[in-house]
Amino acid sequence: MLPAESARIGYVVKRYPRYSETFIVNEILAHEAAGTEVEIFSLRPPVDGHFQDLIAKVRAPVSYIPENVKASTFWAAVEDAAAASPCLWEELNTCVGQSGQNVHQALRLTKLVRSKGITHLHAHFASVATSVARLTARLAGVPYSFTAHAKDIFHEDVCSDDLRGKLADAATVITVSEYNLRHLVESFGEDAGRIRRVYNGLPLRGFPYRSPEQRPPRVVSVGRLVEKKGFSDLIDACALLAERGREFECHIIGDGELAEPLREQVQRLGITSHVQLSGPRPQAEVIEAVGSAAMLAAPCIVGDDGNRDGLPTVLLEAMALGTPCISTDVAGIPEVVRHEETGLMVGQHNPVELASAIERLLEDHALRVHLAEQARRLIEAEFDIHANAEKIRHAIYAASNGRSEVTDEAHRSEVG
After folding, report:
1. Assigned domain for 151 exists
2. Whose CB has fewer CB within 10 Å in the chain, the N or C terminal residue?
3. 307 belongs to a structural domain
4. What is the rounded CA–CA span in Å between residue 259 and residue 163?
5. Do 226 and 183 sit in the same domain of this protein?
6. How many domains, the chain?
7. Residues 6+ apart with CB under 8 A from 130
8. Residue 416 is assigned to a structural domain of this protein
């Protein structure tokens, strides 16, 4: 097997850094802690106004691949890539049918891969990052892999033929839940034969457990303000609690396209004294807010376009911190939020049920403690980032040596 010290992994992402993608940063940091050399290749510049504090801990250099495609720059990119990669001319026909921008960025990335001695490319999300990594792998003559998350496999815009080709060509594929694994295997059969389920992990030292027994009556919810997060249902549930005279406050942390409609909903329902939309916050503030709340609510839903969460990182963070969670049966969530064991489950689009679950945890301190203790045990057993990043490296090193180690047992998640 290719030893860690001789492997150079190129991480291909659509945009870096991105406020909502701390799981990628945690993964890269775990690789670096293990002595693996990583370089980051971003297809787009950052647009977020807030970044998580841990970005500063990443040592990996970041290269931004030019987006603009002009005839002169395109052919210059072809010539530069061909000079760096002897196999480029014979592989260039594989770019037929791909978007000009993807091909242009793949050519630029090919030169960087060859000049920097990258031995393997790994993309996050099966969409544009994997499209460019796949083309680059062909042009540069290196293997590639990718991690499939949620929108990139469930959204109505996902092209099945394109995803099938990516699965078939990849040296190995990671996905973040059993739900995803079953979906991909059932949908793509033999072309999904190299998929491994490896959960996203957490650096557990940064998420110390504290008992939730004595905490203020505060509900916290964290995420991008988009349809699939179900924040509208949470606000309706808060209105029901306010009608019952319940003393509580709810803090919704994040930003997104639904920020203004959600603020209007809070005002229309007359619950501004109970519900606060706090906007995005640095990770340290998010950890403090989650770790001091009586519970975290994540009433996720499947959007009208099929988009859904795979397994929200904030659930893992809350469970690690000792904050009981309420969520729904979307995608991989039931794998961690196990009803009455590690959390409470409610139906999608069900503010009444959600309000009752919140009220129950506000009243029952012993239940909060029971759920929190069981949840922390689960996180320690299956969601340690260093253990899970090692599993990803194991798959990558095997792929770099030209062999697949996926077996029927792996499909049953022996690597999870």
Report:
1. yes
2. N
3. yes
4. 32
5. no
6. 2
7. 12, 123, 144, 146, 152, 166, 170
8. no
pTM: 0.90
Residues 104 and 171 in one domain: yes
- Whether the Cβ atoms of residue 42 and residue 63 lie closer than 8 Å to each other: yes
> Does the residue 82 lie in any domain?
yes
Residue 14 structure tokens: 């659509």
Helix or strand holding residue 25 (H, E): helix 22-33
Question: Cα dist. 198→32, 82, 141, 317, 394 in Å?
Answer: 18, 36, 26, 17, 11
CATH number, domain at 224?
A: 3.40.50.2000
Q: What is the pLDDT along the chain (416 residues), one digit of tens a residue?
A: 445 456 899 999 999 998 789 899 999 999 999 999 999 999 999 887 666 677 889 999 999 999 877 777 787 888 888 888 878 887 888 888 888 899 999 999 999 999 999 999 999 999 999 999 999 999 999 999 999 999 999 999 999 999 999 999 999 999 999 999 999 999 999 999 899 999 999 999 999 999 999 999 999 999 999 999 999 999 999 999 999 999 999 999 999 999 999 999 999 999 999 999 999 988 889 999 999 999 999 999 999 988 899 899 999 999 999 999 999 999 999 999 999 999 999 999 999 999 999 999 999 999 999 999 999 999 999 999 999 999 999 999 887 676 444 433 344 444 33
229/130 same-domain check: no
CB atoms within 10 A of CB 304: 9
For residues 178 and 211, state if they share a domain: no
Instruction: Tell me, yes or no, whether 393 and 345 share the same domain.
Output: no
Q: In which domain, by residue range, is 300 found?
A: 204-382
Phi, psi of 237 (to 5 degrees): -65, -40
